[in-house]
Design brief:
By secondary structure, the chain is an alpha/beta fold. The chain has five helices and six strands. It has a domain of 94 residues: Ribosomal Protein L13p, Chain: A, CATH 3.90.1180. Helix content is 29%, strand content 17%.
Length: 147
C-alpha cells in the first residue's frame, strides 16, 4: 500500500477559468471565495508552496454592495510617502471612480503574504461592466452563495 503524500508541481494541475457576476454580491464574502479559488484550496491537489489555483474573471464590479454604513464610513487611504501625501476617499467614491480596485485590494489582503501572492493575483481579472475579453478561454459561470 502506497502512502506517499502527493505534492503538486508547477503546471501539473490544470487551471480552469471561472466567471463571477458581482451584481448585488457582498464585497467581503465574494473576496474570500475568490481568494480560495486563486489559492487552489478548493481542489484536492492543493499544495501550499505551488500555484495550483484557477483563473477568475469578475464582471459588474460597479454593482458590488457593502453591508451596513460602510459605503460612507469606511475609508480607503493611500500614502505617497511625502509630506501631505495621504489621500482619503470613502468607499462610495471608490465605487464611482475605480470599482475594480476595491475588489482587487480586498482579495490581495486575503492572499498569503509571500511571492506566490503576486502570481495568484495576476489570475484575477476584474471589470467594471458586463463585458470582458476572455471569452476565448470559456470561463464557466460560478454561483456564489448569497447571504
Amino acid at each position: 500500500m502506497n502512502r506517499q503524500t502527493f505534492h503538486a508541481k508547477n503546471n501539473e494541475v490544470p487551471q480552469a477559468w471561472h466567471h463571477i457576476d458581482a451584481t448585488d454580491q457582498v464585497l467581503g464574502r465574494m473576496a474570500t471565495r475568490i481568494a480560495v479559488i486563486l489559492m487552489g484550496k478548493h481542489k484536492p491537489e492543493y499544495t501550499p508552496h505551488h500555484d495550483v489555483g484557477d483563473f477568475v474573471v469578475v464582471t459588474n464590479a460597479e454593482k458590488i454592495t457593502l453591508t451596513g454604513n460602510k459605503l460612507d464610513q469606511k475609508l480607503y487611504r493611500t500614502f505617497s510617502g511625502h509630506p501631505s501625501g495621504q489621500k482619503t476617499r470613502t468607499y462610495r467614491q471608490m465605487i464611482e471612480q475605480k470599482p475594480e480596485l476595491l475588489l482587487e485590494t480586498a482579495v490581495r489582503k486575503m492572499l498569503p503574504k509571500n511571492k506566490l501572492a503576486s502570481a495568484m493575483l495576476k489570475k484575477l481579472k476584474v471589470y467594471a461592466g458586463p463585458e470582458h475579453p476572455h471569452s476565448a478561454q470559456d470561463p464557466q459561470p460560478l454561483e456564489l452563495q448569497s447571504a
